[in-house]
Amino acid sequence: MIKVDQSPREALEQFFGFSTFKGSQEAVIQSVLSGQDTFVIMPTGGGKSLCYQLPALMTAGTAIVVSPLIALMKNQVDAIRSFSSEEGVAHFLNSSLTRNEAIRVKKDIRDGRTKLLYVAPESLTKKENVEFLSDIPISFFAIDEAHCISEWGHDFRPEYRRLRTIFDEIQRVPMIALTATATEKVQEDILKNLDIPNANVFKASFNRPNLYYEVRPKQMVAREIIRFVKQYEGKSGIIYCLSRKKVEEIAQTLVVNGIKALPYHAGMDAVQRADHQDQFLMEKADVIVATIAFGMGIDKPDVRFVIHHDIPKSLESYYQETGRGGRDDGEGRCVAFYSYKDIEKLEKFLQGKPVAEQEIGKQLLQDTVSYAETSMCRRRFLLYYFGETLAGDNCGSCDNCMNPRESFDATDDLELLLEAVVESKERHRAKFICDLLTGTESSEMKTYKGGSLESYGKGRDKDTHFWLAIGRQAVVGAFLHKDIETYGILTLTDQARKFLKKPWKVEFYKERDFSDFDEGDEPGGKSGAVADEKLMKMLKDLRQQVSGKHKLPPYVIFQDPSLEEMTIRYPITIDELTQVSGVGPGKAQKYGKPFVDLISRYVEENDIERAEEVVVRSVVNKSGNKVHIIQNIDKRLPLESIAKSKNLTLKSLLDELESIVQSGTRLDISYHLDDSMDADLQDEIMGYFREAETDSIEGALEEFGSDVSEEDLRLVRLRFMSEVAN
User: Which CATH number is 8-203's, of 3.30.429.10, 3.40.50.300, 3.40.50.1820, 2.170.150.70?
Assistant: First the structure.
């Protein structure tokens, strides 16, 4: 038992100026003060930091706080110092300190000034630090972001698994472990690895009622993000991307569209990262576009939206990152853009890792897919994932509850699924059961002789997507148990066994199939989607008229993807038209006026609300390759030399040339063609493209056979499109 001279409430008032605790904070603090090992699971914004900061300030000795990020340590230390007149009350000890700074930190600790010392797990392994800490009075150890201990956690760090051993080497004192996101499996791992089986466990609800959850198909993402952010003008938000490159691209796109945005990722130097973080905290910037390197421990209460440009690799990551929103209990809008292609990319990242790690990673990804594609209440799904039950089926604050999808009688389908699980002896995962029902000949099906089972092919009138949806709704509905230890094997619950004996009516939701959506990542990405069928027909008719007038094929005027984008953006000026993919300034001036006039009339006659923010300014292409290529073609240098100077193959150079011409830039490659091809043959091929219905190279190859190479056809098509279209 640690002796203290004041109550936690008195200390709270003295040190932090607050008169009341939040949730279970007071009980947690009492547990630490009484010398008990303590385990805290508390959502972001619940006030975890106070649970170890206040006891540290109240007791003799120094509390050692293990923290995974240098940026997080600095943020926490600055916060503690702001409440104290003693500069040395809190320090961090990590690789960012100079030798002199480290000496000063150790002196403050020896002199008894320092109540909290933040360390990275790597710093704890250094012999000199172990020896130093062994000689000082330590009040307790605190492990922040404790989910890093578990391989099933969303941010597993092997060095966290050695903490118990290192602590024992230093000295045995009480311990408090804290995390914002932990499934039941991760919670078990933490208690076992830290060897605190009898710890007092405090588990707050994972429900954040003020957060609104929404998943959108990944189409025209930059355009959608700009439209969304402009609705929150002057308010703070975070946009998460998986790659550093995408962070930079999206940040630049926001800036050119008049939004105060900054990038943040691990590829930037520490000074610039700290500056961008400070600008965001001081509200000099409204939006931070970041990789997951940003946000851990950032205590900004008024973040009004969190956008995921890319779906995260686990639901723990998603929950923690969305948890940055609305920490003041005010509005917090959480929007994730989802495409299964992102999941496939993340699966590729797992290749080459140990088999067990791959299996864990795939299971976490499948849970993310289930969340993204489900039509049931998203809040209920999330809470179930963390071992918590939400009363009722409608939270009133997610896209699925606000726009409920159609429900259907799933009694027979559920019965069929459960019978398949029983017949396959409750030894398989959802994918096997779905393959069994659809009669799919997978390698696993052959290995386990699934074709001989009675259930084989019984559900082939429905597709795999349907049966996966039945499976995940059966899990959340407590008909099936998914065993995480065995990477997702399905077993029946008692409720399921009762249901099979005497079925009752069960209703499930029809789930959304995202497989129909092609990703259109940037303004101008080919989405393949027509937002307005009526307008599309009118634009095609107009294109036919214009092409007849100019005696050119319709594709030369505007290609279909450009028309499709016009049905989404409704451009009514030439300037707006140039923002459409495949429409450069030259083409817009040459052919655009009748199209913007038609769209303008259509918008007015149909009373269409054309939000100004839909018109996305693209970032000027700064590709060094493109600038180099254009300049050297202007100098009439041989294409082979241009390709060689940039380590490109001729095919890759052709791809670049086509991209340049497609964007509306005119290139004169006639000097190259005149040197390599007969003038009559050039004219013949130019004539072909003038008369052809499409610019397909396959069609041209059929026409000219082996007389002309694919490379030559592409070069003549380039000349044709450059001269005629641009």
Answer: 3.40.50.300
